[in-house]
Amino acid sequence: MGLIDSHAHLTFDALAHQVDEVLARAEAAGVDHVISIATDMADAARVLDLARAHSCVSAAMGFHPHEAGKITDADWGLFGNLVVEPDIVAIGEMGLDYHYDFADRRVQQEVFARQLEVATPTGKPIIIHCREAHDDAVAILREGGYAGRPVVFHCFTGTQAEAAALDDNGWRLSFTGVVTFKNAGDLVEIARSYPLDRMMVETDAPYLSPIPVRNVRPNEPAHVAHTARFLANLKAIPFEDFAAQTSANTRAFFGLR
Fold first, then answer.
1. ∠ CA 59-126-235 to the nearest 5 degrees?
2. Per-residue model confidence (pLDDT) at position 36
3. Percentage of the chain with pLDDT > 70?
4. Alpha-carbon distances, residue 37 vs 9, 40, 76, 134, 215 (angstroms)
5. From the CB of residue 51, how many other CB atoms can be counted at a distance below 10 Å?
6. Which of 19, 122, 243, 251 is most exposed, with minimal Cβ within 10 Å?
7. pLDDT at 1 over 80
């Protein structure tokens, strides 16, 4: 069983024009499947088309917090229609970003909570973007009834205490190439102790290329193998066992066939 890149943006410009080649390189690197994430409703249509054209791609969609101030009534209507599509395996990424503050924080919070409300009846997993907003993100999820439900904080870069708080609510962490960076000491220790039967790996392509391809742009799903190999070494287990376990974790979490 090969690897799964549990979070990439194949429809972003840096990858979209070469997606067939990107997927071929992923397959050659031992990456069996990619979950491609849409960040607004125009992107959702592109992600759905991509997933329907490629059996090795699954689709997820939501309103990224950077887009929170741009959402129209028509967008909300489309969101409500698309969340029930069987080709959508997860809702998100959604959440809060207090680092860039591209949208007003109150608006981000309202958009986040509304997405959860619409997504709840589907029972589908939720993908969270959270940057410098841990307490508010946890509070909104809990108020939305998501304690104990399938939630993953993608590209987790928080503290040990934050990781423990997410675990207390039954939520997952997903690891990107950031864990391979030389200044990732705290994250390395979180990954070292993180349960193998809950671990997932991702690229967040076209961003966050891992060492040893840190200077390669754009990042792409094939590079998740570098992150996986780093984590397998960290946990002192064979790479093949790590790949098989994280793939099984990801398929179970997202309900992949």
1. 90
2. 98
3. 100
4. 5, 9, 17, 21, 23
5. 22
6. 122
7. no
Which amino acid appears at position 32 of this protein? D
The H or E element containing residue 174 is strand 172-175
Mean pLDDT of the chain: 97
* Three-class secondary structure of residue 49 per DSSP: helix
Task: Give residue 257's pLDDT.
Answer: 80
Inter-axis angle of helices 160-168 and 185-193, to 10 degrees?
30
Residue type, 155: C
pLDDT band at 22 (very low <50, low <70, confident <90, very high): very high
Q: What b/e sequence results for 88-123 when a residue is b if at least 16 CB atoms lie within 10 Å of its CB, and e otherwise?
A: bbbbbbbbbbeeeeebeeeebbebbebbbebbbeee
Give yes or no for a contact between 97 and 107, defined as CB atoms under 8 angstroms apart: no
pTM, rounded to two decimals? 0.97
Domains of the chain: 3-254 (3.20.20.140)
Token pair listed for 46? 């592109």
